[in-house]
Write a structure and sequence with these properties.
It comes from Roseibacillus persicicus. The protein is of the alpha+beta class. Bound molecules: copper (II) ion (CU). Copper (II) ion (CU) binds next to loops.
């Protein structure tokens, strides 16, 4: 079905469910399309001028159509409240459960026209974020006075381990963007001033793209970033190296964080 619709292959744990829902919706739409087309052709035949030389100015006198419409509203309400909402609740994963699974945490900061990433470092804690400190676009705005932030590091590529949940806190520094990773089947608006969580679990190691899915300026089409899903070991080594380098830099300058925007 995905190949038929031109959709990129799925590489996340929950993506199969998303694809399944999209497929079901497409099949329903196909059934509706066929049904309405048949009804349209029937009306063309039933009400054409040759069969009805004289127009009928009174039209339908009974209330069948009103009853039908009320019936449709009731059936749709039952489908939505009785089936769709409970199913959604049951099938979607909960943020609290993901948080218990020792996820990788990273902030994605969108700006015109790229993405910057802020990792919490070896202590697993993000430094305090103070947006008043923003010195340039894509600045993660880490408060240099907070010791939790001294081992935080930034990167221009999203690197995450395979088979482990990742929580990305999505934000922006200038206008509204939209952070989308199609192979992971996730997408979230990036809004200045807000850190909004989004999560997924990659199932294979790969290199792919993240894109901006919200028209955000003249270079929006080039707002594409790299993403690497790597083995747990190489992720740990990389994160430890980056974190140690940051800590060394920040302890030298005694609290004045210098986190470069790549
Ligand atoms: Cu954008």
């Amino acid at each position: 079905m995905n190949e038929l619709l031109g959709v990129t292959e799925n590489f996340s744990e929950h993506g199969g469910g998303v694809d399944h829902m999209i497929a079901v919706v497409h099949w329903f739409m196909l059934i509706l399309f066929i049904g309405w087309t048949i009804f349209f052709l029937y009306c063309c035949w039933r009400f054409n001028a040759r069969r009805n030389p004289k127009a009928d100015y009174t039209g339908v006198k009974n209330h069948v159509s009103t009853h039908l419409e009320v019936g449709v509203v009731i059936i749709e309400a039952v489908l939505l409240l009785g089936f769709a909402f409970p199913l959604w609740r049951e099938r979607t994963d909960k943020f609290e459960d993901i948080q218990k699974q020792d996820p990788v945490r990273v902030r994605a900061i969108g700006y015109q026209f790229a993405w910057n990433y802020h990792y919490p470092g070896e202590d697993g804690k993000f430094g305090r974020i103070d947006r008043h400190l923003a010195s340039n676009v894509g600045d993660p705005c880490i408060d240099p006075d907070d010791p939790n932030g001294w081992d935080d590091f930034t990167a221009s590529t999203l690197k995450v381990p395979v088979n482990k949940p990742t929580i990305v806190m999505v934000t922006a520094t200038d206008v509204i963007h939209n952070y989308a990773i199609v192979p992971m089947r996730v997408q979230q608006d990036a809004i200045p001033g807000q850190d909004i969580p989004m999560w997924f679990t990659p199932t294979e190691t790969l290199e792919t793209y993240v894109v901006c899915a919200q028209l955000c300026g003249d270079q929006h089409g080039n707002m594409r970033g790299l993403m690497e899903v790597v083995k747990q070991g190489s992720f740990d080594t990389w994160a430890a190296e980056q974190s140690a380098a940051s800590l060394k830099r920040n302890s030298k300058t005694e609290g004045t964080t210098e986190v470069a925007v790549n």
